[in-house]
Automatic annotation (TrEMBL):
It is found in: Membrane. GO terms for molecular function: glycosyltransferase activity. Pfam families: Glyco_transf_92. Coiled coil: none annotated. This is Glycosyltransferase family 92 protein. It comes from Lates calcarifer (Barramundi).
């Protein structure tokens, strides 16, 4: 799980709960933390290296994207002593907790935590593609979850990381199923135990101390967690799919591996080590229209209607792209080793920046509530790209639902 620990700071006679440590990684020692932005604190780091203790000053830098909430994500950088190859760290204040930053006297009850990413790699990663899905809470959209996870596998994704706060029992059953299969890693996301998290992206959209259940620290935790485990990392939500428009779809066993074909194409066109930004196309779930007469919907299992959630194959019309939303709500695929800081849409700090991907090469399919609710059905635009995956997708979804008791045993494949 993510290391989330409350760290109280003592300033004079007043004690404040103002920093939450998420995880520690090695470049310097980078502590991804959640801090109270209005306070200025002198941090110190206690590092254990080769059986010796070293104290260094920690330098805090708050991420620019905090959306005006009191708390924001920060990197606290601890310099590594010369000749120190393998370190653990105790960043502390004055309390007996596992990982602390201290601003006064050092508590002697020390429990050191291993620093991650101590071995730098540039090739031979366990995974080609990892997708980071952040801050799942009160989640009940089982059908779309299964459809999306099966679609991601068809695209070539090897690992999906879910930062979970809460979900329905049926959702948990699905997560357990994919965890057992080796596709999903569930990170228990317990930030709400320490501060009042908002369920909105602005304070006006939901009360709380930090943006959207701590989405930004979760995304950055995932980015660093898989920095040397995955060749590429995609940051998007479970209701979003990045689909190439010209995949040859050469099937290998169960998978089609379109992303394996896409990324070399993007690197050649836009340059390697870029972040690739994909245009957001909203397919409103409030509208269900048949395809044009030249298209035929594939046969789907009628029992799907008894499963909680959205059927993405029923929503094939997207809202028109308008100037006000053209460059908003995009999502990205990155080489994680070329990134320092991520945000909800794009990056805050990276080696080479980001490039917009031509929508005729690939774009994002976002099946959700409408962004332009006043549109009439005849103003929506048909896009049947998802149907090209349906031959493989439908039986795969049926199998998962049936094996988890969500479809009758005698239902069609």
């Amino acid at each position: 799980m993510a290391t989330i620990l409350l760290c109280s700071m003592s300033t004079g006679s007043t004690k404040h709960s103002n920093i939450i440590l998420i995880v520690l990684f090695l470049d310097q020692v980078r502590v991804i933390a959640v801090v109270l932005r209005k306070e200025t604190v002198a941090y110190h780091c206690l590092l254990c290296c080769q059986d010796q203790l070293h104290i260094s000053d920690g330098v805090s830098s708050v991420y620019a994207h905090h959306f005006d909430f009191p708390y924001g994500t920060a990197d606290i950088m601890c310099p590594i002593p010369s000749g120190c190859e393998t370190v653990t760290i105790k960043t502390c204040d004055c309390l007996n907790i596992s990982v602390v930053l201290f601003c006064g006297l050092l508590n002697q009850n020390k429990e050191f935590v291993e620093v991650k990413n101590q071995k730098v790699k540039s090739d031979s990663f366990p995974y080609n593609f990892t997708v980071c899905l952040s801050t799942m809470f009160d989640f009940t959209n089982v059908l779309q979850l299964v459809q999306s996870l099966e679609m991601l596998q068809l695209l070539g994704v090897n690992r999906v990381v879910v930062y979970k706060t809460s979900c329905s029992p049926e959702t948990q059953r699905i997560l357990d199923y994919y965890t057992h299969k080796g596709l999903v890693e569930v990170i228990p996301w317990s930030l709400s135990k320490f501060i009042n998290v908002s369920r909105g992206w602005l304070p006006s959209h939901g009360p709380g101390d930090i943006h959207y259940l701590g989405q930004i620290p979760a995304l950055n935790d995932c980015l660093y967690r898989y920095m040397y485990q995955s060749k590429y990392v995609a940051l998007h939500d479970i209701d979003e799919l990045i689909l190439p428009q010209s995949c040859i779809m050469v099937q290998y066993k169960y998978f089609i591996y379109c992303w394996l074909e896409l990324l070399p194409q993007l690197e050649k066109k836009y340059g390697a080590d870029q972040c690739y930004m994909f245009e957001n196309n909203v397919f409103p779930i409030t509208v269900t229209l048949p395809p044009p007469t030249s298209q035929t919907l594939p046969l789907q299992n009628h029992h799907w209607q008894n499963v909680s959630g959205v059927n993405i194959l029923a929503h094939l019309y997207h809202e028109p792209i308008i100037p006000e939303t053209h460059y908003s709500n995009f999502k990205i695929i990155v080489n994680p080793r070329a990134v320092f800081r991520a945000t909800v849409h794009g990056l805050l700090k990276s080696v080479k920046g980001c490039a917009w991907v031509d929508r005729n090469i690939a774009r994002m399919y976002h099946t959700r509530d409408p962004r332009q609710p006043k549109l009439t059905p005849n103003q929506l635009i048909y896009d049947g790209r998802l149907l090209s995956y349906s031959t493989h997708l439908i039986p795969a979804v049926n199998t998962v639902l049936r094996e988890n008791g969500l479809l009758p045993e005698d239902s069609i494949q």
